[in-house]
């Protein structure tokens, strides 16, 4: 239809990527332990289904929150009418405190600097509208969440220029990669407005190191641009290190209340940490009053339901709950990740060593026919249609190296995970090279393990080294 | 800071208009029957607070809906994870049925053509993104809801060109006004993509006549444009003539599967009929292509699954919806009549209305001069001296000074009485007796005129469309 906008007639929603096509295949033939045991197991959905029991038990003990009551009195009218885009004060306060708690109370968040949005999808798009003109660019480290192609670019007209990261250094962000991305943007005649990182990373499952964060802050300072840190997975950090937020780094470098701190913005959401994607709760945190003011008005286009704000302000205000939840959530994620990692290892498959997230970044390069993206897609199709596992191919995340896949572990039961690992093992061993690979893999694995430890040590110790290309 | 976008630094959010400034004054000094009896009474907020008891009593009898339960089983997990932008099927079914019920089941809505959005604010913006490119224009009859300046234009880059309507014919949309607006857009070098109407109208409180709807369909048909009908107030029609949706007219003209029907889109919401603006429930109803694009765009403003579930239970209860719609309309009618007669007592007329949560009040005779400056002066007096927040017509882009939108459904009856008393004291003032008498005379002749206007409006359905 000629009369529709170019946004509609072009493909900017990015919905044709394999990321979404795998989902469609799953929808046609979804696994069910009893009803469809041969169906496809969904491992492409980064959901956190491990801790619902904790929330359900809280709800059972705190019935007022869902029943729209306060101290036994109905506050239905008050909630029904509450559409103030400044958000419910108790809720913003509870969100600010929860964000502080996740960061070990090392930094403080001011509720007045929070803007609520209908999910981080809305928060990210709104930030783009506030920071970029159509045709401006943001630099994003690869691999990145496929949804960003839609969320950041589609209706805003902003562009994404990748900061290429590679397996040679555990996909860490380097200074030269940053500079190269910046130059590439210039070549394309795009004005760079900022950098957007996801920390912890999706799809890598790793938290940014202090060194990378320092690098980023220095970079945006020297270029006078913005830094958006999407910390949606901050509460899924299960490694033994602490999560370092960009706010920690600003504080450590004594940059709070400076010009550069006004160009650092955080995005958060309850969709991953609390496993509540259906409730549409996102937030922007900014030190720039003008951004907070503009984003607040823009939030009219995606406010959080007052019914939901009320429920969650009660939940998050309960510090006993939040403290117990965060600890237990991390424990369960750690144990689930270990299960996936060791299961993969017994099939000769390694993962990038991860310490956060709801997925592993899996190395299947050795299973490719050739070192190409065509081969990656071939392998992916085999895994989807033959092994009946929906996983996300690295190319859908804009990875520059073929052979990496994102595999989720927190959106299914333990039994289902075991079943998936069985299927994979069978597949790997049954392929012609598979039998050879299994043995080779075992050897390779032993030496890889040595190497992974080195990489890990490499990564962790970076904080003490001088930043330079790796 | 040079590093922010123009959208963030400019004024197109329209938040500086008097519409919002009145609210700010109210926030500083809000009326409270006991705690602040001299405070400002809010009459600028089109909320429906008249029928909460009906919903509260339903909630008390149906606790499962709010408690994440279905037939005694917890469905918390299912809801917590449900983020499918196609929306909860039971909710879309219930919404489609409710919309059909609102139109006397004279038309039938297909749930598959519904897109759920976080309020009509989000629905309208999304439709703009789908139908128009930056620099394109939509034609809107004046006066119109001030929020459209932000919702339709701000982030989309779309322009609004007014279709000028005047009191000469009860602010009806005429063919020549439509043509005039179209020409004006061309003069401004803007490509017109469509027409957007609010039916029933905000701020007029009137339903659009069948004649106007026919006129609009002919116009968009000839010019190959879209027609968006924001029917957010469709459930607030409290007296005749009954509500006629553009969908009905399409059906009557046997245009249901035609090209033009693919360019007709409806926007709806539960914020006014059910009084639930806090729950952020809006919809777009359209054809396949727009539904597909708008569905993806709805990712940026999905309705909380917690809320979808609660409302699907509420709206699926046909006993509830039938009783609610009827009772809501009765209460709105009574409240409307109270405001109208209270205003009449002080010689103030309203546009005769049959819907909405407000009246379109004629205070032209109180202006010191027939100018918008005089209107703002009067408005300031009303806000600061009479302590009533009402919305001046200029904030709604009315092209005649002296009209005000006054809300009646967002307060108790007692508060409305207080407001009317204050107005009486302001109008009657010191020389109350003489003024009262001349007002009474004036009122009698105005009533005659008003009846004529009303008859005029009603009988239009039988006449040939032509400028009035």
UniProtKB/TrEMBL annotation, chain A:
One of its GO terms (molecular function) is 1-aminocyclopropane-1-carboxylate synthase activity. It is an enzyme of class 4 (lyase). Pathway: Alkene biosynthesis; ethylene biosynthesis via S-adenosyl-L-methionine; ethylene from S-adenosyl-L-methionine: step 1/2. The keyword Nuclease does not apply. Pfam families: Aminotran_1_2. Its EC number is 4.4.1.14. One of its GO terms (biological process) is ethylene biosynthetic process. Its cofactor is pyridoxal 5'-phosphate. The keyword Metal-binding does not apply. Signal peptide: none annotated. It comes from the Eukaryota. Residues 41-424 form the Aminotransferase class I/classII large domain. Keywords: Ethylene biosynthesis, Fruit ripening, Lyase, Pyridoxal phosphate, S-adenosyl-L-methionine. It catalyses: S-adenosyl-L-methionine = 1-aminocyclopropane-1-carboxylate + S-methyl-5'-thioadenosine + H(+). Belongs to the class-I pyridoxal-phosphate-dependent aminotransferase family. 1-aminocyclopropane-1-carboxylate synthase (ACS) enzymes catalyze the conversion of S-adenosyl-L-methionine (SAM) into 1-aminocyclopropane-1-carboxylate (ACC), a direct precursor of ethylene. PANTHER family: 1-AMINOCYCLOPROPANE-1-CARBOXYLATE SYNTHASE 5 (PTHR43795:SF54), BIFUNCTIONAL ASPARTATE AMINOTRANSFERASE AND GLUTAMATE/ASPARTATE-PREPHENATE AMINOTRANSFERASE-RELATED (PTHR43795). This is 1-aminocyclopropane-1-carboxylate synthase. The lineage of its organism: Eukaryota, Viridiplantae, Streptophyta, Embryophyta, Tracheophyta.
UniProtKB/TrEMBL annotation, chain B:
It catalyses: S-adenosyl-L-methionine = 1-aminocyclopropane-1-carboxylate + S-methyl-5'-thioadenosine + H(+). Pathway: Alkene biosynthesis; ethylene biosynthesis via S-adenosyl-L-methionine; ethylene from S-adenosyl-L-methionine: step 1/2. Its cofactor is pyridoxal 5'-phosphate. Its EC number is 4.4.1.14. The keyword Lyase applies. Keywords: Ethylene biosynthesis, Fruit ripening, Lyase, Pyridoxal phosphate, S-adenosyl-L-methionine. InterPro entries: Aminotransferase_I/II_large, Ethylene_sulfur-biosynth, NHTrfase_class1_PyrdxlP-BS, PyrdxlP-dep_Trfase, PyrdxlP-dep_Trfase_major, PyrdxlP-dep_Trfase_small. Residues 41-423 form the Aminotransferase class I/classII large domain. GO terms for molecular function: 1-aminocyclopropane-1-carboxylate synthase activity. GO terms for biological process: ethylene biosynthetic process; fruit ripening. Belongs to the class-I pyridoxal-phosphate-dependent aminotransferase family. 1-aminocyclopropane-1-carboxylate synthase (ACS) enzymes catalyze the conversion of S-adenosyl-L-methionine (SAM) into 1-aminocyclopropane-1-carboxylate (ACC), a direct precursor of ethylene. PANTHER family: 1-AMINOCYCLOPROPANE-1-CARBOXYLATE SYNTHASE 8, BIFUNCTIONAL ASPARTATE AMINOTRANSFERASE AND GLUTAMATE/ASPARTATE-PREPHENATE AMINOTRANSFERASE-RELATED. This is 1-aminocyclopropane-1-carboxylate synthase. It comes from Eruca vesicaria subsp. sativa (Garden rocket). The lineage of its organism: Eukaryota, Viridiplantae, Streptophyta, Embryophyta, Tracheophyta.
């Amino acid at each position: 239809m000629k009369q529709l906008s170019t946004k509609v007639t072009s493909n900017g929603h990015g919905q044709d990527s394999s990321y979404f096509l795998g989902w469609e295949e799953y929808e046609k033939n979804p696994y069910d332990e009893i009803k469809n045991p041969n169906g496809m197991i969904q491992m492409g959905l980064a959901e956190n289904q491990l801790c619902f029991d904790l929330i359900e038990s809280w709800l059972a003990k705190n019935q007022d929150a869902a029943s729209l009551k306060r101290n036994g009195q109905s506050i239905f009218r008050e909630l029904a009418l509450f559409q103030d885009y400044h958000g419910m004060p108790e809720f913003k306060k509870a969100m600010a405190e929860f964000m502080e708690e996740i960061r070990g109370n090392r930094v403080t968040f001011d509720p007045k600097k929070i803007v609520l949005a209908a999910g981080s999808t809305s928060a990210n798009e709104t930030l783009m509208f506030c920071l970029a003109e159509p045709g401006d660019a943001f630099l994003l480290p690869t691999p990145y969440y496929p949804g960003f192609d839609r969320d950041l670019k589609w209706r805003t007209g902003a562009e994404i220029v990748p900061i290429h990261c590679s397996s040679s250094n555990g996909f860490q962000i380097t200074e030269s990669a940053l500079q190269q991305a910046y130059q590439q943007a210039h070549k394309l005649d795009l004005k760079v407005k900022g950098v957007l990182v996801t920390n912890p990373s999706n799809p890598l499952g790793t938290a940014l190191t202090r060194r990378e964060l320092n690098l980023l802050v220095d970079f945006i300072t020297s270029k006078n641009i913005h830094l958006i840190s999407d910390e949606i997975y901050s509460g899924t950090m299960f490694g033994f290190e602490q999560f370092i937020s960009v706010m920690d780094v600003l504080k450590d470098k004594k940059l709070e209340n400076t010009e550069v701190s006004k160009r650092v913005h955080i995005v958060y959401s309850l969709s991953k940490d609390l496993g509540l994607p259906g409730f549409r709760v996102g937030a922007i945190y900014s030190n720039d009053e003008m951004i907070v003011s503009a984003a607040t008005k823009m939030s009219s286009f995606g406010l959080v339901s007052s019914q939901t704000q009320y429920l969650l302000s009660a939940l998050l205000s309960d510090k006993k709950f939040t403290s117990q939840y965060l600890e237990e959530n991390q424990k369960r994620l750690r144990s689930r990740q270990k299960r996936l990692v060791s299961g993969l290892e017994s099939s000769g498959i390694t993962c990038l060593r991860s310490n956060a997230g709801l997925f592993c970044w899996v190395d299947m390069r050795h299973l490719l026919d050739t070192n190409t993206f065509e081969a990656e897609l071939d392998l992916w199709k085999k895994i989807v249609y033959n092994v009946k596992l929906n996983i996300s191919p690295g190319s859908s995340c804009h990875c520059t190296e073929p052979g990496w896949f994102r595999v989720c572990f927190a959106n299914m039961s333990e039994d289902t995970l075991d079943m998936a690992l069985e299927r994979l093992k069978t597949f790997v061993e049954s392929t012609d090279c598979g039998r050879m690979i299994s043995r080779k893999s075992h050897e390779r694995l032993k030496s890889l393990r040595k190497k992974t430890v080195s990489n890990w040590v490499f990564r962790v110790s970076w904080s003490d080294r001088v930043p330079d290309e790796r | 800071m040079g590093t922010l976008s123009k959208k963030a630094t400019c004024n197109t959010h329209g938040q500086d208009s008097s519409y919002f400034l009145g609210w700010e004054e109210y926030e500083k000094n809000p009326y409270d029957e006991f705690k602040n009896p001299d405070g400002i009474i809010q009459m600028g907020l089109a909320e429906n607070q008249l029928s909460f008891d009906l919903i509260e009593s339903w909630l008390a009898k149906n606790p499962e809906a709010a408690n994440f339960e279905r037939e005694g089983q917890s469905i918390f997990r299912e809801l917590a994870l449900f983020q499918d932008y196609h929306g909860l099927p039971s909710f879309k079914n219930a919404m489609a049925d409710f919309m059909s019920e609102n139109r006397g089941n004279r038309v039938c809505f297909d749930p598959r053509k519904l897109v759920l959005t976080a309020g009509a604010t989000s629905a309208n913006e999304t439709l703009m993104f789908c139908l128009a490119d930056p620099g394109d224009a939509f034609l809107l009859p004046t006066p119109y809801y001030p929020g459209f300046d932000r919702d339709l234009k701000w982030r989309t880059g779309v322009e609004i060109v007014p279709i000028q309507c005047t009191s000469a014919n009860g602010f009806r949309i005429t063919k020549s006004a439509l043509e005039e607006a179209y020409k004006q857009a061309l003069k401004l070098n803007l490509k017109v993509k469509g027409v957007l109407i609010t039916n029933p109208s905000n701020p007029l409180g009137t339903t659009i006549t069948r004649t106007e709807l026919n006129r609009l369909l002919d116009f968009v048909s000839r010019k190959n444009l879209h027609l968006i009908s924001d029917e957010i107030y469709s459930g607030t029609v409290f007296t005749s003539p009954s509500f006629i949706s553009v969908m009905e007219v399409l059906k009557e003209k046997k245009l249901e599967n035609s090209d033009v029907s693919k360019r007709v889109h409806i926007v709806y919401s539960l914020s006014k009929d059910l009084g639930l603006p806090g729950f952020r429930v809006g919809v777009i109803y359209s054809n396949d292509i727009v539904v597909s694009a708008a569905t993806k765009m709805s990712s940026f403003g999905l309705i909380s699954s917690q809320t979808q579930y609660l409302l699907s239970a509420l709206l699926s209860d046909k006993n509830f919806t039938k009783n609610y719609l009827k009772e809501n309309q009765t209460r709105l009618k009574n409240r409307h009549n109270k405001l109208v007669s209270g205003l009449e007592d002080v010689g103030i007329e309203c546009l005769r209305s049959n819907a909405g949560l407000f009246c379109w009040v004629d205070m032209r005779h109180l202006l010191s001069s027939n100018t918008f400056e005089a209107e703002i002066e009067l408005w300031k007096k009303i806000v600061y001296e009479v302590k009533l927040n009402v919305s001046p017509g200029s904030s709604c882009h009315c092209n005649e000074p002296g009209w005000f939108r006054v809300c009646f459904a967002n307060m108790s009856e007692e508060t409305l009485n207080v407001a009317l008393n204050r107005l009486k004291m302001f109008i009657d003032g010191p020389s109350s007796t003489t003024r009262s008498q001349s007002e009474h005379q004036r009122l009698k002749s105005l009533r005659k005129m008003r009846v004529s206007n009303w008859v005029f409006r009603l009988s239009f359905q039988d006449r040939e469309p032509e400028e009035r």
